[in-house]
Amino acid sequence: AQSVTQLGSHVSVSEGALVLLRCNYSSSVPPYLFWYVQYPNQGLQLLLKYTSAATLVKGINGFEAEFKKSETSFHLTKPSAHMSDAAEYFCAVSGRDSSYKLIFGSGTRLLVRP
Amino acid sequence: GEEVAQTPKHLVRGEGQKAKLYCAPIKGHSYVFWYQQVLKNEFKFLISFQNENVFDETGMPKERFSAKCLPNSPCSLEIQATKLEDSAVYFCASSPLQTGRSNQPQHFGDGTRLSIL
């Protein structure tokens, strides 16, 4: 069975500092991995996806993530945090089976201090 | 349309009443998914459709919950005899998935917040 673990329910950084949000997955087959962002009272917006084409994936708003098979990780980073980055971030996995459903981590709330 | 449209944004029902939620997927997307997000931010998969056919219903509660995607109509999720525990935000997502390729992302609507009193 597939699962996703996001370490840290809350992460606080200063504006301009590095953002690192952690995601580890469990999958018996190479997974497809996604990072979504959720702003208050809104749906999920796709930040980036890993589909095995390249291990370093660049997304929108300056975010990127690196797939590390040996560590079963897909951590999200951004070199310099902006106040507008404050939101909830979800890592999700979709298997290469026929289900297509997303399995989400529990989310990490990013707080950006001025 | 270019966005997944969910209606209503908020729905309040008394315990035991029926609730019906609607979702218009992005035009051209053949797959529709329903997820339930409860207070602890946990997303639970409910059901998916490939066009008007149920694709995966392994997450649907056996009782009280039903869903449809009919041609030329918004998809719907209906809860009969609602319970307090049904209070959650229900998200619909659509995707242009192709059979055998699950790497296409799902595009989410803004959700319907269901409050059971």
Mind explaining what this structure looks like?
The complex is a heterodimer of chains A (114) and B (117). Chain A is mainly beta. Helices cover 0% and strands 51% of the residues of chain A. Chain A has no helices and twelve strands. Chain A has strands at 3-5, 10-14, 19-21, 24-26, 32-38, 44-50, 56-58, 64-68, 73-78, 87-94, 103-104, 108-113. In chain A, the strands form three sheets. In chain A, strands 2, 5, 6, 10, 11 and 12 form a six-stranded mixed sheet that branches. A four-stranded antiparallel sheet of chain A has the order 3-9-8-7, with no helix packed on it. Chain A is globular and about 45 Å long. The model of chain A has no long low-confidence stretch (mean pLDDT 91). By secondary structure, chain B is mostly beta strands. Chain B is built from no helices and eleven strands. Chain B has strands spanning 5-7, 10-13, 19-24, 31-37, 43-50, 53-56, 65-68, 75-79, 88-95, 107-108, 112-116. In chain B, the strands form two sheets. In chain B, strands 2, 4, 5, 6, 9, 10 and 11 form a seven-stranded mixed sheet that branches. In chain B, strand 7 and strand 8 form a beta hairpin. The mean pLDDT of chain B is 92. At the A-B interface, strand 5, strand 6, strand 10 and strand 11 of A face strand 4, strand 5, strand 9 and strand 10 of B.
